[in-house]
Amino acid sequence: MATVALTAENFEDTINSNDIVFVDFWAAWCGPCRMFAPVFEAASEKNSDIVFGKVDTEDQQELASAFGIMSIPTLMVFREKILIFSQPGALPAPTFDQLIQQVREVDMEEVHRKVAEAQAAQS
Description:
Distance between the termini: 41 Å
Helix content: 40-55%
Order of helices and strands: EHEHEHEEHH
GO molecular function, one term: protein-disulfide reductase activity
Structural class: alpha/beta
Largest sheet: 5 strands, mixed
Low-confidence stretches: none
CATH architecture: 3-Layer(aba) Sandwich
Keywords: Disulfide bond, Electron transport, Redox-active center, Transport
CATH topology: Glutaredoxin
Oligomer: single chain
Number of strands: 5
Organism: Ferrithrix thermotolerans DSM 19514
CATH class: Alpha Beta
Shape: globular
Number of domains: 1
Protein name: Thioredoxin
InterPro entries: Thioredoxin, Thioredoxin-like_sf, Thioredoxin_CS, Thioredoxin_domain
């Protein structure tokens, strides 16, 4: 599956409608973003069960601001509608492949339990 352009209009639906979503916040003028783009695209082709979305921070400034993007590229990973990973910087292909495998192996029952506990503690 090729990467998907994410916008303020389709972002929430994309996160809510898919089990795993990798999001690359990038800009055309950003050298590291351009270096990471082929790695991200290749991973999207090898992992057709995962959605790989790209947010152009120049075009989608409100979306980038909503997520507090301070440096690009920034990679975020959502699993079952929960943000489970967020890190600025371009990743080399082997590291990105390892991250994809780790995301697949996350015990989401445990994550949901911890989120519920945190929410209960705040109320």
